[in-house]
Amino acid sequence: MSFGQGGPQWGSGGQDENPYHSRQGAPGSSGPSGTGGPPHQGAGSTPDWAALADASAARSRRRRMLLLGGGALATIAIVSLVATAIVRSSGSDGKSPRAGASELPGPQELPSDSSRPEPEFSSVAPPEAPDPKDFISSEEKDTAPLTADTLFPGRKLTMGDRAYAKGPAGRAGSCAAATQGGLGTVLARNGCDQVFRATYTKDGVAVTVGVAVFGREAEAKKAARQSTGNIAPLSGSGVPVFCKGGPACLFTSNSYGRYAYFTATGYTTGTSVTTGDKRAYRAKEDLTEFVFRQIVRRGNAQASAAVAEPAG
Fold first, then answer.
1. Where does residue 97 fall: left (phi above 0), alpha (psi -120 to 50 degrees), or beta otherwise?
2. How far apart (Å, rounded) are the C-alpha atoms in residues 208 and 197?
3. Which helix H or strand E contains 49, and what residues bound it?
4. Do 227 and 183 form a contact (C-beta atoms < 8 A)?
5. Over the chain, what is the mean pLDDT?
6. 206 phi and psi, to 5 degrees?
7. What is the 3-state secondary structure (H, E, C) of 91-141?
8. 90, 97 contact by CB (below 8 A)
9. Which segment, 46-60, 78-92, 218-232, is predicted with the most confidence on average?
10. Whole-number pLDDT of residue 36
11. How far apart are CA 142 and CA 182, in angstroms?
């Protein structure tokens, strides 16, 4: 059924009902073939696929922009909610976790009295610790007991992994009686008061240690520097005579404070000590170090006692 000449065939078989499909006008017609479709096309022309593709791409871009914008807004909203929750959880009591300076109590709000007393500091500087050497440099200050047992305590001496047995020990009121050669004269000339001796043995090596006591440090230092001869080896109490009658021995002299100390080292078998003899030299060094430590320990003990019980 037709509604006027040149009109579309509604419902005709095979006719495309797509509104964007081109419609053929009547012969001689100058108007458009319909409304809402694409621009007028001539008879027998095909659809403008490029225009249709552009339109479809534009719609896709609009949809993507809408989706992206919606996602960004959703992300911002979530971040805001999380930040708000964190702030509320960290300050649940309604206050900021770090109070500003304006929230600190003023001076009028602080307690004016305290039950704890304030510390007091003395304006007087504490006295300097005494020098231990001062106590062993003169007889006026060196007043601690002085005997063979205080200088050479115990029954044996251990130095590192080496143990020495203690033999005879004693005191000589005459300094010359405890010496050999010219040492007695040197000691007497410099004011020697007394000499203490002790002998130690290990593996056939014997060492006699002699400590000469003076009134002043300068006297002991001068006697050690001028020394000649040697301290007389002390035998007995199981220690045979040594360093007498010809065998070569080692002799040393030193001083510290008002004490000059000497050693005589040799073999109990009468064998001479040779250069590079490790056993004899080691024994000599051990006993020299030992007597030095004993003199230093004497000064330290008297200095500590002076600090604990100051004079006056």
1. alpha
2. 7
3. helix 49-90
4. yes
5. 78
6. -120, 140
7. CCCCCCCCCCHHHCCCHHHCCCCCCCCCCCCCCCCCCCCCCHHHHCCECCC
8. yes
9. 218-232
10. 43
11. 28
